Amino acid sequence: MADIIDGKAIARQLDEKSKAQVDEMLAAGMTRPGLTVILVGDDGASQVYVRRKIKACEKVGINSNEHRLPADTSQEDLLALIDKLNKDPEVHGILCQVPLPDHIDTRLVLRSIAPEKDVDGFHPVNVGRLSTGTGGIVPCTPLGVMILLESVIDDFVGKDAVVIGKSNIVGKPVANLLLDAECTVSVTHIYTKNLPELARKADIIVAAAGAPELVKGEWVKPGAVIIDVGITRIMDEETGKERLVGDVAFDECQHAKAITPVPGGVGPMTIACLLANTVQAAKALQGEGDKTDQYADAPSRTMFTEAASDS
Ligand code: GUN
After folding, report:
1. Mean pLDDT across the stretch 77-105?
2. Percent of the chain with pLDDT over 70
3. Does the CB atom of residue 96 touch ligand 1 within 6 A?
4. What residue owns the CA closest to ligand 1's atom 1?
5. What pLDDT score does 135 carry?
6. Residue whose CA is closest, atom 8 of ligand 1?
7. Do 174 and 145 form a contact (C-beta atoms < 8 A)?
8. How far does residue 46's CA lie from ligand 1's centre (Å)?
9. Could you give the 3-state DSSP secondary structure of residue 227?
10. b or e along 215-236 (b: 16 or more beta carbons within 10 Å of the residue's beta carbon)?
């Protein structure tokens, strides 16, 4: 049987670490980290996500603030709010929930968030830093994927990794992080030829295609490590009830060394990493660390190795 990588437990450990860092900051006379979340419109799923993010802040002692704006908010007003938050010394992290309404240019809005407060890691400056291995704020889900991998892999050097999915939010940043860890990385997508064959050679599979149970048991080499980022609600024909499934046929992959469950794998890590990024941003903004490189201590360079060594 494959080991189950317990995302909930690892997320809890990361939260404890974030909380300890907040306590240390306060003891050193620094300002408590603050996260502001902006939600435009009334998309139901976004409301749930935002509520979870705000609630999670409480657990680790981060101040949180929510701006709920009507769906017809003008782009100009949204940019003016972000500009104000960029200048507010009590705000260390700004997250603008996407999707935004159609009349708003999402890329422009995400670019308007100060890179040092961009706790999503979506700003081109942070994307560029990640892809050049020069720090920056790492997007939450990819950071969570790396922490989970490090909980079961001691040495990444020379490992073959296959990333399924090339999204800007997961596939591409995960590929960059794995490259930084000295893996040989194949980034695959819907037009990839012989995906099962490629996957079968991999020591590490990160499935982030949004395709339920795409990865079959026969795609997986015995002893591989599998991280399943997918989460889709499907109707179970046998029981007639809905259930959540990942991109991996979990039951068929028990010959893997380790695998994340869905739910309870990557999901809990995303919010824990958002909190960790906010704490890190608050420290950097208050001058802790190397001032010539505000991101020298960014989570991408320290957090996941520390988290792994503690577990
Ligand atoms: N919408 C769904 N997930 C996310 C996320 O991680 N960040 C933002 N800003 N919006 C989202």
Report:
1. 97
2. 93
3. yes
4. 98
5. 84
6. 97
7. yes
8. 8
9. strand
10. beeebbeeebbbbbbbbeeeee
The larger pLDDT score, comparing residue 294 to residue 57, is at: 57
Query: How large is the angle between the packed helices 140-150 and 171-180, nearest 10 degrees?
Result: 40
Domain residue ranges of the chain, discontinuous segments joined by +: 28-114, 140-266
Spacing, Cα 97 to ligand 1 middle (Å)? 5
Q: Ligand 1 centroid vs 129 CA: distance in angstroms? A: 20
Tell me the CATH architecture of domain 140-266. 3-Layer(aba) Sandwich (3.40)
Q: How many residues does the chain have?
A: 311
Q: If you take atom 9 of ligand 1, which residue's CA is the nearest one?
A: 97
Q: How far apart are CA 121 and CA 293, in angstroms?
A: 16
Cα(22) to centroid(ligand 1), Å: 24
Ligand 1 lined by 118 (C-beta under 6 Å): no
Atom nearest to 169 CA in ligand 1:
6
Is the CB of 5 inside a 6 Å radius of any atom of ligand 1?
no
Question: pLDDT of 142-188, one tens digit each?
Answer: 999 999 999 999 999 999 999 999 999 999 999 999 999 999 999 99
Query: Is 120 marked active-site?
Result: yes
* Annotated catalytic residue 88: no
Assess whether the region 28-114 and the region 140-266 belong to the same CATH fold: yes
CATH architecture, domain defined by 28-114: 3-Layer(aba) Sandwich (3.40)
- Per-residue pLDDT at 93 exceeds 60: yes
Structure tokens at 257: 């060394």
97 assigned to active site: yes
**Å from CA of 216 to ligand 1 middle:** 28
Among 175, 168, 31, 169, CA closest to 93:
31
Omega of the bond leading into 261 within 30 degrees of 0 (cis): no
Q: Is the pLDDT of residue 310 over 60?
A: no
The catalytic residue among 17, 21, 97, 172 is: 97
Give the rounded percent of residues in the chain with a pLDDT score beyond 90. 90
Confidence of residue 119 (pLDDT cuts 50, 70, 90): very high
Contacts (Cβ under 8 Å, ≥6 apart) of 211: 230, 232, 247
